């Protein structure tokens, strides 16, 4: 499998540049805009959390958030089962109406 993008600061291809210059030339509604030049140095990201985060870590965080949300949902259902059941019934009715409209 070939990845088209780097992950964080991990470079998939060694010896590729990490400093870039972008020159922006634009035409605005009142004529040409002044030329803008941006110098980007990706070395600044080397010591940030971005350099430490992988897709696996993002998945772990999403799974943790999902567990926390499930726990919160369970707690709400226990505290007020009538409201939870009413919301569940409202969702079932909305789904049935959408399916009938198809």
Automatic annotation (TrEMBL):
Highest taxon of source: Bacteria
Name the UniProt record assigns to this protein: Uncharacterized protein
Higher taxonomy: Bacteria, Bacillati, Actinomycetota, Actinomycetes, Micromonosporales
């Amino acid at each position: 499998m070939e990845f088209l993008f780097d992950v964080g600061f991990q470079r998939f291809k060694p010896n590729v540049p990490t400093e870039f210059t972008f020159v922006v030339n634009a035409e605005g509604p009142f004529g040409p805009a002044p030329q803008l030049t941006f110098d980007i140095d990706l070395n600044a990201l080397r010591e940030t959390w971005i350099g430490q985060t992988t897709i696996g870590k993002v998945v772990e965080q999403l799974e943790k958030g999902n567990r926390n949300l499930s726990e919160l949902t369970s707690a709400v259902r226990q505290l007020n089962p009538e409201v939870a059941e009413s919301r569940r019934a409202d969702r079932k009715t909305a789904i049935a109406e959408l399916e009938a409209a198809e």
